[in-house]
């Protein structure tokens, strides 16, 4: 199964709790090596985002993210995992799970309405 | 079953329920088979194969199921010495919220209907139907595996499994002449307490069940009517079981990690240790409900605390508390709210208002025995007596 892994910051996090957090480069090398991580990247901050809507055939742009939330998306990865347990295991090894939050979204399967 | 049907949760659930229904039909006459669980599994498997054949499911899938061996009693990497408990731990996946885990497990493994689970959670049946539907959807869509969790992941699933056992027990408690569900819940709680000796709440749960279940012989009169706690013949209580529950409770309370189930067991112990209803230590029970309200706040706890205050300080002290709960509207369809109110009004001499509440309670009570009890109360004049026919541990 494919999962979108959204890597988010957590404004409620206080530094000093991340003792022993894994290194992100090791995580990437490890998951790439296992064929679990298909692709991924950091993203520029929300202040660099543009939100696009088309209403009445008119393209409306908003300067900023789609939703004003306190938790911000800092990056993403696309995972290929056997099931949610494996995806949770992979996500829990990412340093941002220790200092932020990670959301796992299953892909909508091809050919399903 | 979910493994058998290749991950088809609905089919597995339907076949498991068919098997339970067949068991209920056959076992009373033919007797319980030597290995009830194996019987259920086999029956459900046959049903699944039958259903898939009839649905002309893909031949490959059918062959796969037919060839599959029964689930081994002890999975090599599992420490759980009971297959049913193992299935409960497997079903309670922490990626679902606690209520969803509990509801889905009850529906899939205990044969409880959506209506019964809805009543246990104090929500309307369509709401519970929606919750179950959403939970099953997430299981399928998010790729939640049906896999026995390794030992180090059991503690995080324990709260959900304890709630499952608790609601299973409560379901059985409502029908005192039908002890099977309560007995099964107690059996599983025993296994759990041995499996997880360092979890105080597992022991609290076992003590709670033993102390409540000990009253079973006194809860139904010769005429088949329910007998309220304060009118029960206490010589009929199972003393050995009370002693066992009390010892377990005392031992676990010494660890000073009191959780909701231990506190509820302590309340049950107050009742069990009173030689007569009039000697019940109600001020202590009021205190324990106060403690329970701090660790596990809920409107049900508030209601039970009000009942205890009504016994300790009189109905006039409790009525404002019950009226405040009524005003929230949260328990509008909960018969014990109306039964409690009726009882307090009756004891306060407000007979006409009491009658209205008794009728409302009788209209909402889930079993015929409880409805009959409330109608009898309505016919009675002011005096002693309690609100409920020994309603047991109460809601979630």
Report on the structure:
The complex is a heterodimer of chains A (113) and B (396). In chain A, strand 3 and strand 4 form a beta hairpin. Chain A has a single domain, classed as Dimeric alpha+beta barrel (Alpha-Beta Plaits, 2-Layer Sandwich), CATH 3.30.70. Chain A is α+β, with helices and mostly antiparallel strands and 113 residues long. Helices cover 21% and strands 36% of the residues of chain A. Chain A starts with a strand and ends in a 7-residue tail after the last strand. A four-stranded antiparallel beta sheet of chain A has the order 2-5-1-6. Chain A has a two-stranded antiparallel ribbon with strand order 3-4. Chain B is an all-alpha fold and 396 residues long. Among the domains of chain B are: 73 residues, no CATH class; 116 residues, Serine Threonine Protein Phosphatase 5, Tetratricopeptide repeat (Alpha Horseshoe). Helix content of chain B is 65%, strand content 0%. In chain B, helix 6 packs across helix 7 and helix 9 runs antiparallel to helix 10. Chain B is globular. About 5% of the residues of chain B have low confidence. Chains A and B meet through helix 2 of A and loops of B.
Could you name the key traits of this structure?
heterodimer, A: 113 residues, alpha+beta, Alpha-Beta Plaits, four-stranded antiparallel β-sheet, two-stranded antiparallel ribbon, 3 helices, 21% helix, B: 396 residues, mainly alpha, Serine Threonine Protein Phosphatase 5, Tetratricopeptide repeat, 18 helices, 65% helix, 0% strand
């Amino acid at each position: 199964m494919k999962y979108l892994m959204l890597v988010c910051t957590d404004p409620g996090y206080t530094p000093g709790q991340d003792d022993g957090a894994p290194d992100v480069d090791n995580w990437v090398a490890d998951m790439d090596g296992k064929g679990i991580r298909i692709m991924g990247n950091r993203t520029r901050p929300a202040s660099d985002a543009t939100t696009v809507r088309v209403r009445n055939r008119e393209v409306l742009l908003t300067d900023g993210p789609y939703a004003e939330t306190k938790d911000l998306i800092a990056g993403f990865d696309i995972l290929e995992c056997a099931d949610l347990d494996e995806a949770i295991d992979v996500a829990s090894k990412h340093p941002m799970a220790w200092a932020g939050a990670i959301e796992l979204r299953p892909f909508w399967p091809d050919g399903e309405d | 079953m979910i493994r058998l049907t290749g991950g088809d949760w609905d089919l597995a659930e339907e076949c498991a329920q068919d098997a339970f229904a067949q068991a209920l039909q056959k076992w009373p006459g033919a007797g319980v088979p030597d290995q009830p669980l194996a019987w259920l599994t086999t029956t459900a498997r046959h049903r699944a194969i039958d259903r898939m054949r009839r649905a002309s499911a893909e031949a490959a899938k059918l062959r796969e199921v037919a060839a599959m061996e029964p689930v081994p009693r002890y999975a090599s990497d599992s420490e759980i010495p009971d297959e049913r408990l193992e299935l409960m731990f497997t079903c309670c996946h922490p990626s679902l919220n606690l209520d969803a885990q509990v509801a889905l497990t009850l529906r899939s493994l205990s044969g409880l209907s959506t209506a019964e689970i809805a009543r246990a959670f104090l929500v309307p049946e369509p709401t519970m139907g929606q919750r179950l539907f959403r939970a099953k959807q997430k299981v399928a869509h998010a790729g939640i595996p049906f896999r026995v969790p390794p030992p180090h992941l059991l503690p995080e699933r324990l709260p959900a499994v304890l709630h499952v056992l608790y609601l299973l027990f409560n379901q059985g408690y409502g029908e005192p002449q039908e002890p099977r569900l309560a007995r099964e819940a107690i059996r599983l709680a025993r296994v759990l307490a041995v499996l997880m000796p360092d979890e105080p709440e597992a022991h609290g749960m076992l003590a709670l069940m033993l102390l409540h279940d000990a009253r079973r012989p006194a809860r139904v009169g010769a005429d088949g009517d329910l007998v309220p706690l304060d009118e029960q013949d206490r010589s009929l209580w199972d003393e050995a079981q009370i002693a066992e529950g009390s010892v377990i409770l005392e031992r676990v309370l010494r660890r000073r990690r009191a959780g909701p189930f231990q506190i509820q067991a302590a309340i049950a112990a107050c009742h069990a240790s009173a030689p007569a209803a009039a000697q019940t230590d109600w001020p202590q029970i009021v205190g324990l409900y106060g403690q329970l309200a701090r660790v596990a706040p809920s409107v049900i706890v508030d209601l039970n605390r009000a009942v205890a205050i009504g016994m300790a300080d009189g109905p006039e002290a409790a009525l404002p508390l019950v009226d405040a709960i009524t005003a929230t509207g949260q328990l509008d369809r909960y018969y014990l709210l109306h039964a409690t109110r009726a009882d307090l009004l009756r004891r306060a001499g407000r007979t006409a208002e009491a009658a209205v509440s008794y009728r409302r309670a009788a209209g909402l009570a889930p079993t015929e025995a409880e409805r009959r009890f409330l109608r009898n109360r309505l016919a009675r004049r002011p005096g002693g007596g309690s609100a409920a026919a020994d309603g047991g541990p109460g809601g979630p």
